[in-house]
């Protein structure tokens, strides 16, 4: 039997459709961590996108791995577990193995401090990072999050699941923004623009939590959302084609997208993202 592989762009469109459909009932859902795990783009995927546009590896934009033991509250640790997971994915995609191991160690320290280290298969992550196996890394990160989310839900700490995913998403957006400042790319601009869809689903969930930390994060992300108001993305559907390669059926389509935004508005989004991220990693 032929194996069907869906192209990256097709998966992206499926994600966009799911976001729109999910918007109807998102506030009625109970497992907020699971919802966010489904709608957010993977940090590994975004890191691969950055590399694909020809951007060079830039360690200076990553959070310092030395800070891992300096985050005292569980909330700060959960946020930065997401940050370090994104930085790990970024280093691994570029095959910067020394840095990847450093960030894996940071992930390990924070995970163990939160009591979730047992759910992370460090040996397998190391193997996949060395092999630069993107699909397997995506599968492994999905499995890992599902286990961590179950743990937090069981222990009445679902806020930490949401914080972890929010931290990872913010770091992914931040890295994309920093690269976009240095390298003009329509692909990156569109991807940054698409994050307004994630924000529209993330904010209703964050607003359910009444801790001062969550309120502060919600306020900052609401300010970021306001900067997206003048931004518009137009999608133009193209022809869907299939072809067989080595016994696998490849499904591809030529859908294109265009972004309508004033450069000054885009700059404000880039700058605001940097300010929000700075508060998280301080």
Textual characterization of the structure:
With 282 residues, this protein is mainly alpha-helical. It has one domain. Helix content is 65%, strand content 9%. The strands form two sheets. The protein has a three-stranded mixed sheet with strand order 1-4-3. The chain has a two-stranded antiparallel sheet with strand order 2-5. β3 and β4 form a beta hairpin. The longest helix has 25 residues. The N terminus is likely disordered.
Estimate what percentage of residues fall within beta strands.
5-15%
The average pLDDT value, as a whole number, equals 79
Q: How far apart are the termini?
A: 52 Å
Instruction: Return Rg in Å.
Output: 18 Å
- Profile the largest sheet: 3 strands, mixed
Q: What is the 3D shape? A: globular
List keywords for this structure.
11 helices, mainly alpha, 65% helix, 282 residues, two-stranded antiparallel sheet, 3-stranded mixed sheet
Summarize this structure briefly.
By secondary structure, the chain is mostly helical.
Summarize the SSE layout with pairings.
Layout lengths: L2 E4 L1 H15 L9 H8 L3 H10 L21 H20 L3 H17 L8 H10 L2 H21 L3 H25 L3 H21 L5 H16 L4 E5 L3 E6 L2 E6 L2 E5 L2 H19 L1
């Amino acid at each position: 039997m032929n194996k069907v592989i869906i192209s990256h762009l097709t998966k992206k469109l499926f994600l966009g459709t799911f976001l729109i459909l999910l918007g109807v009932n998102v506030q009625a859902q109970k497992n907020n961590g699971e919802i966010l795990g489904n709608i957010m783009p993977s940090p590994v995927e975004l890191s691969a996108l950055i590399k694909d546009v020809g951007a060079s590896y830039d360690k200076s934009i990553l959070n310092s791995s030395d800070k891992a033991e300096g985050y005292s509250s569980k909330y700060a640790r959960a946020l930065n577990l997401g940050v370090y997971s994104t930085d790990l994915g970024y280093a691994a995609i570029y095959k910067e193995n020394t840095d990847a191991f450093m960030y894996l160690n940071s992930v390990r320290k924070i995970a163990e401090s939160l009591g979730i280290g047992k759910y992370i298969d460090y040996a397998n992550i190391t193997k996949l990072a060395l092999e630069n196996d993107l699909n397997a890394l995506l599968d492994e990160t999905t499995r890992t999050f599902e286990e961590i989310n179950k743990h937090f839900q069981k222990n009445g700490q679902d806020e930490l699941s949401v914080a972890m995913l929010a931290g990872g998403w913010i770091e992914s957006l931040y890295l994309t923004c920093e690269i976009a400042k240095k390298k003009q790319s329509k692909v990156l601009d569109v991807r940054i623009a698409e994050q307004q869809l994630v924000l529209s689903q993330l904010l209703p969930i964050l607003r359910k939590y009444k801790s001062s930390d969550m309120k502060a994060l919600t306020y900052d992300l609401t300010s970021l959302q306001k900067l997206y108001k003048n931004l518009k993305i137009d999608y133009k559907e193209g022809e869907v084609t299939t072809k067989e390669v080595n016994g696998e059926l490849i499904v591809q389509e030529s859908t294109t997208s265009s972004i309508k935004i004033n450069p000054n508005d885009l700059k404000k989004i880039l700058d605001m993202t940097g300010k929000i991220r700075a508060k998280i990693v301080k």
